[in-house]
Amino acid sequence: MTSPFGGIVPVGIGGIAGVASTAATTGTTGTQATQGDGGFAAVLAASFDRLQGTQSAADSLATQAATGDLKDVHDYMIASNEASLATEMVVTIKNKAVEAFNEIMRMPV
Amino acid sequence: MAVFDTLGISGSGLLVHRKWLDAVSDNISNINTATRTNEDAFKERFIVARAVDYGSGEGGVRAARAEFGSGQGRLVYDPTHPLADKDGMVKYPDIDLGGQMTQLLMAQRGYQANLAVVERATTAYQAALQLGRR
Amino acid sequence: MIGDVTSTALHAALTGLAERSRVTADNIANVNTPGFLAGRTDFESALSGALSNGEKPSISRGTVARSLEPTNTNGNNVNLDSETVIATETGLRYQLALNALDGKYSVLRTALRTS
Q1: Cα C23 vs. chain centroid, distance in angstroms?
Q2: Looking at residue B62, what DSSP letter applies?
Q3: What is the CA radius of gyration of chain C?
Q4: Complex ipTM tops 0.90
Q5: How far apart are CA B68 and CA B95, in angstroms?
Q6: Is A72 on the interface with B (CB under 8 A)?
Q7: How many whole angstroms from its chain centre is CA B96?
Q8: Which residues of A touch C4 (CB under 8 A)?
Q9: How far is C97 from chain A (nearest CA, A)?
Q10: Could you state, in order of their start, the residue ranges of all structural domains in chain B?
Q11: Tell me: the pLDDT tens digits for B100-134?
């Protein structure tokens, strides 16, 4: 089974720092700032897509479990855990991004 | 579900072994049933077990039918018996008690083995339900 | 999210399985009652029917019917081995449905966290 989180690099402060440093300087670094935003936004968008997929897979397996048509119980348990972990990952990224944004807004210009 | 297939298969095993136990207990309780010489003796009861869908993986066992042993029995000289004929002979069933006790042990072992499978499958299933719990 | 088809289906399954557990206990208690016919419940037909039509399933205890399997000499047709297996299976499916519902609620809670 392939790792469900392949392709998503946990976003550390490094990514946010890139945005922060370009925002601090003025004028000529406009394009660099866009690149930094694109990198982080792409990661977040990929996380959302994956999240939607895992949640609907877990839902359909849960429905099968309810009607008694579920062939293997571990299929449902794995899908449910993947959905839960994917949700936690997206929420953590969102919270960290909000925190970082607030930090930046607090910085004296 | 995969575990519930296991439960169904073990359930069929429990059923057949219980029928076997019933047949053996019936044989043993009738081991001294006397009949007249012109009638059949008590016939030993066998259960014929057949695999359900042999080799396809659906699995399980069923008791296809009951077979009966020969009614010949053995003749015993007992002129005081109420069912004795003019020669004083009475017919008793030709059932070997030792054989029946062996079958009893085998049936009981088979029953317990199937019960153990049910318990193991239940434990495995409950372990799967714990996946991801902290 | 809250009250969606999956949660309602799981709720319906829990209600149906609880009823099945009761009927099975009734059968086992009456294993030696003369003339007693084993009870069988069915909630899966109504549930799958509603789900395949795309409707929200209704929460019901399912239908209870008397089994028409052959009886023994005193008119009782309860098979202790079948009832034991049904009881085990019902218990496991109940745990699974609870687990599934719990999983859904915890995902919602995670999404609502702000730190």
Answers
A1: 10
A2: E
A3: 18
A4: no
A5: 12
A6: yes
A7: 15
A8: 59
A9: 6
A10: 2-129
A11: 999 999 999 999 999 998 898 889 888 888 887 76
- Specify the 3-state DSSP secondary structure of A56: helix
The size of chain A, in residues, is 109
- Reported residue count of chain C is 115
The neighbouring-strand residues paired with B51 are B61
The beta-carbon neighbor of A87 closest among C9, C44, C107 is C107
Task: Count the neighbouring beta carbons within 10 Å of the beta carbon of residue C62.
Answer: 21
B47 touches B18 (CB < 8 A):
no
Chain C residues in contact with B127 by the CB 8 A cut-off are: none
For residue C72, CA distances in Å to B18, B67, C60 come to 14, 19, 33
Burial C11-31 (b: 16+ CB within 10 A, else e): bbbbbbbbbbbebbeebeebe
Contact residues on chain C for A52, CB-CB shorter than 8 A: none
Query: What letter represents residue B111's amino acid?
Result: Y
Rounded Cα distance between A72 and A80, Å, is: 13
Identify the chains in contact with C, defined as 3+ C-beta pairs within 8 A: A, B
- Which letter, b or e, does each residue of C88-113 get, where b requires 16 or more Cβ atoms within 10 Å of its Cβ? bbbbbbbebbebbbebbebbeebeee
Q: Check if B131 contacts A (Cβ < 8 Å).
A: yes
The residue among A93, A97, A64, A58 whose CA lies nearest residue A79 is A58
- Domain extents for chain C? 5-112
* B contacts of C93 (beta carbons < 8 Å): 4
Mutual angle of helices A73-106 and B97-129, in 10-degree steps: 20
Residue B125: closest CA among chain C residues belongs to which residue?
A: C92
Among C81, C85, C89, the residue with its CB nearest the CB of B18 is C81
**Taken in order B8, B9, B12, B17, is the CA torsion positive or negative?**
negative
pLDDT digits (tens, 9 = 90+) for B18-60: 999 999 999 999 999 988 888 888 999 999 988 887 666 667 8
pTM score, whole prediction: 0.73
3-state secondary structure at position B35: strand
